[in-house]
Amino acid sequence: MDVGIIGLGRMGSNMARRLHLGGHRVVAFNRTPERTREITGEGIDGAYSLRELRDMLPAPRAVISMLPAGEPTETMMEELTTVLSAGDTVVDGGNANFHDSKRRHAMLAERGLGFIDCGVSGGIWGLANGFGIMVGGDPEAVDPLRPIFETLAPPGGFVHCGAPGAGHYVKMVHNGIEYGLLQAYAEGFEILHASEYTLDLERIAKAWGHGTVIRSWLLELMALAFERHGSDLAEIEGWVADSGEGRWTVEEAMALDVPAPVITLSLLTRFRSRQQESFGAKVVAALREQFGGHAVKLA
To answer: Do 239 and 270 touch, CB atoms closer than 8 A?
Structure first.
């Protein structure tokens, strides 16, 4: 199939490469032309404007946007409505809020354009291993593009989740679960690191990856991280970002009256990681000194 890719960051560029290697014709576009020129050296066609991208694709066109959520995606969707033709389909593969995806589906439908919200998981390993693909949208938009999604995904890794917005909804919850898993590993390895024993965390992580009930791909990646940075992770600052999906998952849990304490606390722990010094922790220490005479560490 012919497909356009907009946005050649780490995910977009590797998706373009995987589709190219899978036998599809890819036309790639990036706002900064340097990345477009770079990927054309790999045999992928490059466009240097949205109109050129449109003209290089046969109708009905399929265009995948791999831009950050928020203003960049919103601007791109509006621009595409002025460039593409009725019958074309836009796939939003960024981590958009599912409410925005439902609204964009309606906006593009008014102009005769199809819209698919596509949650993508796999990170920088997706090129070699395949991407987890979770899509939402009308069947008449999704079904013609199944060869694209099935090429991006490993066997069994593509799912049409449901109506418009469902793909980004499922990806949102996926990332909320990820927050909890990462935090569980973080706490476990911190206990090991703080123990009385001199432990080789790399070897432990690798051993846990064989036969144990907590083995996972994340645990394999943890072993690789220890191998690269050492068991103390001394060169890494303990500052953890969040890309929005964890917050949205917690908001949705509250809206549905679903208790999600692990995911919620995992999100709050990320906020704590961004404080060089926590005033709240000072308050707790001061109160413990007052009611129990517990020692405080003075700055």
So the answer is: no
Query: Mean of the per-residue pLDDT values for the chain?
Result: 94
Question: Taking the complete model, does pTM exceed 0.85, yes or no?
Answer: yes
Catalytic residue among 102, 171, 202, 245: 171
In this prediction, residue 290 carries a pLDDT of 86
Q: How far apart are CA 186 and CA 268, in angstroms?
A: 14
Provide CB contacts within 8 A for 223, sequence distance 6+: 202, 205, 206, 209
- With b meaning 16 or more CB within 10 Å and e meaning fewer, what string describes 49-61? ebeebbebbeeeb
Based on the residue annotation, tell me whether 297 is a catalytic residue of this protein: no
Please identify which residue in the block is written with the tokens 């770079």.
Answer: 38
Query: What contacts 236, CB < 8 A, 6 or more positions away?
Result: 229
Compute the distance between CA of residue 51 and CA of residue 55 in angstroms, rounded to an integer.
Answer: 6
Q: Catalytic one among 38, 52, 150, 178?
A: 178
Residue 171 appears among annotated catalytic residues: yes
Please state, for a pLDDT cut of 70, what percent of the chain lies above it: 100
The number of residues making up the chain comes to: 299
Handedness of CA 257, 261, 266, 272 (dihedral sign): positive
